[in-house]
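Box 3.1 A note on notation
Throughout this textbook, protein chains are presented in two layers. The first layer is the amino acid sequence; the second is a token string describing backbone geometry. Keep the layers aligned when reading.
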Amino acid sequence: MDTAPLTGPRLGIAALALALGTFMQVLDTTIANVSLTTIAGNLGVSADNSTWVITAFAVANGVTVPLTGWFMGRFGVVRTFVVSVLLFTAASLLCGVAWSLPSLILFRLLQGAVSGPMIPGSQALLISIFPESKRATALGIWSMTTLVGPVAGPILGGYISDNYHWGWIFLINVPVGLVAGLVSWALLRRRETATHRLPIDVVGLLLLAFWVGTLQMVLDLGKNADWFNSSFILVTALLSALGFVCWLMWELTEARPAVDLRLLGDRNFALGTAAFCLGYALFFGNTLLLPLWLQMQLGYTATWAGLVSAPSGLVAVLCTPLIAPLSARVDARWLGTLAFAAFALSYFMRAGYTTYADYWHFTLPLLVQGVAMSTFFLAMLTISLGGIPPERTPSATGISNFARITGGSFAASIVTTIWDRREALHQTRLAEASSPFQGPFPGAVTHLAGQGLSEHQAQGAIARQLVGQAYLLSATDIFWACGWISLGLIAFVWLARRPPAPTGPIAAD
């Protein structure tokens, strides 16, 4: 095995190939967010059903993340990374040619399932090919690619959806993935790590996939099936609860569990992981909600919805080089406080949105969110992993990322459900105050009739405005709730002990 650092053009080309692998995976977590209404319209389904495109990928990715360490130990880091990239590329091709929503969901499940090793593998290999003196450069390249993805994803997804077939948001991965995988293998195959025959907790993984998958089905299908008035939802929820209890008992008694839940006995790890999961869930749910609202209710195109969403990632890219050096000198709890305070401010600013706000009013809160993103990941990982022994760090990162990814997936379903439910409540209340015989309603009808509309057209226009206002009020309810929850998560940060400053790389994914 060759362990010497690479030099010259080989180093640059290998670093670019590894960065492309990271970029491609991160890109696919956001590129579809602004394209959901386009995909739904093309496939003849409702926009709320199309959220399966997001949640299927996240659930499959979250469930397979704990397997990453086993794959790398059993087959080697280089081989695991390259195979993951090539399988991800093949799954992207299938997503691009999907002919129905069920087929697209199936291929997104496959795409998420094979993508687990891509980000940790690229980070490990980037560190290994750079000399010790340039380790910070390697981590900088890795960090920048993980932050550029959220910038490029909404813009690229919106532009493609507005100008080409939506399938191209996945098909563009094919040439990128082939280059990243084949170049990485050509340059790094002689650097393969040692392999060992390792046991694998098959029962634990199957139980994990079962309870997470059935719970996701409850969250995604429940709102259209009237929740527990549906026997299918009730039975699925009971099966999920039973699966969770069985998984919990199995993992706590298994000698080599897939998810080592004993780590949660460490106070900092438990508090840090909880804050990481909940904070990311709020972030991911709002990242999905805003483009849906802009397109479904305010008439934004996918491109403009992407341009509204992208600046937060751009600010994070600019702030990270300034924030990262502070991590060695500043208590990570202060960085975590800054992150949650900035998230809360961003959500509270969104609670002031109106249906006639312009582009900059929609974008300004997301610029504040970018500041939060630049400190959030580093602070949460430092708090949760800082006191974990090195030999248990792989298991700890597996739990942390499983909680984060599945929390984001569940939040996507919960937020869209609450949005629809609160809209129905607000619409009812607005309708009660809009009687055709009193109040402003008759005057509005008369005014619109004077503009050339028939009585029925005028009533339809007013009803459309009423629905739009109901969705706005529902969205602001969610923004307020997210803001207060973010402030509450600051308590989790300060209940933790002061963590040691990071002295080496911490995997963010």
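The chain has a mean pLDDT of 83. Residues 201-257 form one domain.
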